[in-house]
Model the fold of this input.
Amino acid sequence: MNTISFADLKLAPEILKALTDSGYTTPTPVQAQAIPLVLEGCDLMAGAQTGTGKTAAFVLPMLQKMLPLASGSASPARHPVRALILVPTRELAIQVEESVKTYAKHCKLRSLVVFGGVDIKTQTPHLKRGVEILVATPGRLLDHIEMKSVQLNQVQMLVLDEADRMLDMGFMPDLKRILALLPKQRQNLMFSATFSNEIKKLSADFLTSPRLIEVARSNATAENVTQKVYLVEQAGKHALLAQLLRGSDASQVLVFTKTKLTASRLAKQLQRDGFAADAIHGDKTQLERIQALDAFKQGKVTVLIGTDVAARGLDIDQLPMVINYEIPHAPEDYVHRIGRTGRAGASGKAISLVSPEEEKYLKEIENLIKREIEKETAAVPHAARTSRAPRGEHHERSHAPQGERHERSHAPRPSAHKKPSHDPWFDKPYEPSGSATAVAQQPAQPASKPKKQVAAILVRRQG
Ligand code: AMP
Done:
């Protein structure tokens, strides 16, 4: 476990206090990576999108660097623009400046936001009073420069936020004009959700020996997640999964399937095997999903099976294990999925069951994450292989006797209706319950029900 705190990042007490006020205790990965580099004075090219905490990743070290220059004086001359944050849209501009204000609330540093679409005259007096940190959209900033309401000759730090979007929106000429007005000696930070060739060119043009960090979904997987692949025939997956779920480290597991149908069927099969399993996916009603997730958080359900839709919004800290029952065909989805574990510095395990037909997708994933995942061949005995693997169209009807059927005690089925593919409830941070581990190994079935014996022999693969 390599959880670091904001204090470990050597941030000033004024900044730490603001973070505590905001309720933030642990830096997000982009913050943990970016803050030390920015404090060192490096130029930075960061692959991070909204939602990763990227704003604080540049604002916090920026404030720290500006702090010695903070002044209580009313004179505009004592408050020159020292940091310029360029953003593509008005909405982002407002959001970023709100963050600056929040984190700077105990610092004597001024900030302001300027963007187009509003009367420029309302912005000018504020600019003229002097601000150390200016958040701006490029076009409006140029208007102010032309009106001489702002000077940029003391800018020490430049941030291009959502640089890819700025390029998409055709801001390149404006950016060039602005950058030409800045002092040559300055620190440059660029944040982008994607690393297109245009972005690479922009970074080559404007950054000096930049340090590269990537936390975006595109191609980064957390270091603290142990990844492993079991090579297994499709028909042997169910038995192997059951075996893995019986392992001591499988106290709470999120299992991914490609389709909703497989998720539902797998959940039913695992329930019959004696696991406290449930499915969560876009075809369930909101109530059902909330109940399933709640039961998972409380440890009543120890195996939650979902599709990629569930992965996108699901924010579960300290989830110990993710299993890909089927690997996704879009390699980015793999990164999304395994990002459900090992969050906030906790360690996690990501296991993928890969059939021969899926090996080509595995290659693509390995190319994307730029690493080879450890592989082991799972030899599943014939008897186990013939067990009811949820093979979509080949799925047999359940032969389980009535008494064996697991009834979801917590889920009175509300009338089925389609709900939105994402609901904000899933974004609530996960709080592991104290009882989770204790309940984890208990089957959902009545105690009298014998566990079905499933076996899978694991054979280590050479190389
Ligand atoms: P951003 O990616 O900068 O748009 O931030 C996404 C959200 O995460 C914002 O609502 C921030 O307030 C929040 N946030 C930023 N840093 C942290 C942190 N270290 N801990 C918890 N929440 C954070």
